[in-house]
Amino acid sequence: MAKVTLATIAQRTGLSKFAVSRSLSGKDGVSDETRRRVREVAAELGYARPSPEPELLTLGVIFHDTDLINSELHLLIQNGAQSEAERLGYRLNMRWTHEPEEIQAIVRSCSGAVLVGPHDRETFARVRTLGRPIVRQGWLEPLEQADHVGGTDHEAGAAVANYLLALGHRRIVYVHGTPGFRGRVERFYGVREVLEKQADVEFREMRFQADSRFTEHLRAAHAEGFHPTAFFCAHDGLALTVVSELLRLGYRIPENASVVGFGDYSAATQISPQLTTVKVFGQQMGAACVRLLDDRINGRIPADIPVRVQITSRIIERASCGPIRLSETAVPILPIAG
C-alpha cells in the first residue's frame, strides 16, 4: 500500500498542502469546515502524522580563556567533546570565559556542563547552586566532591623516571619552568618518587623565574660539579627550549644528553631531533567528559558518588632520547659566568 502523505490528502480534498497541513496541526488560517473535512479524509485514508523530531539537549563546554599555555590541549578536548556529543545526540554550547556570572548564565541554559581549565572557587560555588551535572577538567582539591576527567601526571612522571633509568641515565633533571602549575608539580612528584629510591642517582629540579634562562641554571649546576645527562621537561614547549639551548652549547642529542617532553603536541615532530615525549590524549578526555555528563543526566550513576576518570598517557619514543655514551663524545663543560 502506498504511503499516505499530505499530498495524498490534498489531492483527495482538492485543497493545497498548506491548507491540509494547517488543518491537521490545528493552526489557524482555515475554516472549521475545512479542518473537519481534512481530518475525516485523513482518518479514512489511514494517515499517521510523523512524530516530531525530539529536541536535542544542550551541554555547555566552558574553557578558561586566560589559560593559553594549554591551548592545544583545549583544542583536542573541544574536538573530542564535539564528536561524542554528536554521537550521543546533544547540542554543544562552546564558550571561552572566566567570568563567574557569565559561566553561571551559560550553565543555567544547559542540561549539564564541562568546565575546562583553572576556574576559581567562586565559579564552582555559583554553578553548584543550579543543580546541573558538572564535570571538571582541571585540578580539584583533595577529595573534593566533584566529577572530574583528567590525565595521569604523577604516573607519567614515574614512568619517565623508569624509562630514563633503563637507558642508563643516573644524573637527571626535571625542568619545571615557571612554578605554580599543579600538573607540572605532580609530574615532578612522580619522577622523584622513583628516583629517590635509587642510591646511585643524582636528581635535581630546575625552576625558572621570569628573569632567568635554562643556560644559567645549567651553568650553575656545572659549577657545582653536577653534569646531567637527561632532562625531563614539564611540557613540550620547555623541551624545545632545552633541545635548542643544548645544541647551541655544543651538546649532541641524544649522545650527550636525552630530552623528554610532555604533551606530544605539534611542535614535538617539528624539530630535529624529533622529541621523545609523553602523549596526552586530549580528544579522549573531551569525549569522556561528555559521556560522564550523559551518565549523570540519565541517572546511571548514584547522585551522591563523585566520579574521577583518568585517561592514561603514553611515552612516545623519538630521536631525542637514547642510552648515554659518554665514552664516545665528551659532554661540553660550560664556563662559569664571571
Write the layout of secondary structure elements.
Layout (H helix, E strand, L loop, with lengths): L5 H8 L3 H9 L6 H14 L11 E7 L7 H18 L1 E7 L3 H9 L3 E5 L4 H8 L5 E4 L9 E4 L2 H14 L4 E7 L4 H14 L6 E6 L6 H10 L6 E4 L2 H13 L9 E6 L12 E4 L2 H16 L10 E3 L3 E3 L22
Parallel strand pairs: 1-2, 1-3, 3-4, 4-5, 5-11, 6-7, 6-8, 8-9, 9-10
Antiparallel strand pairs: 10-12
Helix pairs in contact: 1-2, 1-3, 2-3, 4-11, 5-6, 7-8
Question: How would you describe this protein?
Answer:
The chain has helices at residues 6-13, 17-25, 32-45, 71-88, 100-108, 121-128, 153-166, 182-195, 214-223, 236-248, 282-297; strands at 57-63, 90-96, 112-116, 134-137, 147-150, 171-177, 202-207, 230-233, 258-263, 276-279, 308-310, 314-316. The protein has three domains: 6-45, no CATH class; 58-146 and 282-316, 3-Layer(aba) Sandwich (Rossmann fold), CATH 3.40.50; 153-276, Response regulator (Rossmann fold, 3-Layer(aba) Sandwich), CATH 3.40.50. It contains eleven helices and twelve strands. The protein is α/β, with parallel strands linked by helices. It is elongated, with a radius of gyration of 30 Å.
Oligomer: single chain
Give me the side-by-side strand order of the main sheet: 2-1-3-4-5-11
N- to C-terminal separation? 96 Å
Number of domains: 3
Describe this protein with a few key phrases.
DNA-binding transcription factor activity, 12 strands, transcription cis-regulatory region binding, Rossmann fold, 338 residues, 3 domains, single chain
Task: Describe, in short, the structure shown.
The protein is of the alpha/beta class and 338 residues long. The chain has helices at residues 6-13, 17-25, 32-45, 71-88, 100-108, 121-128, 153-166, 182-195, 214-223, 236-248, 282-297, and strands at residues 57-63, 90-96, 112-116, 134-137, 147-150, 171-177, 202-207, 230-233, 258-263, 276-279, 308-310, 314-316.
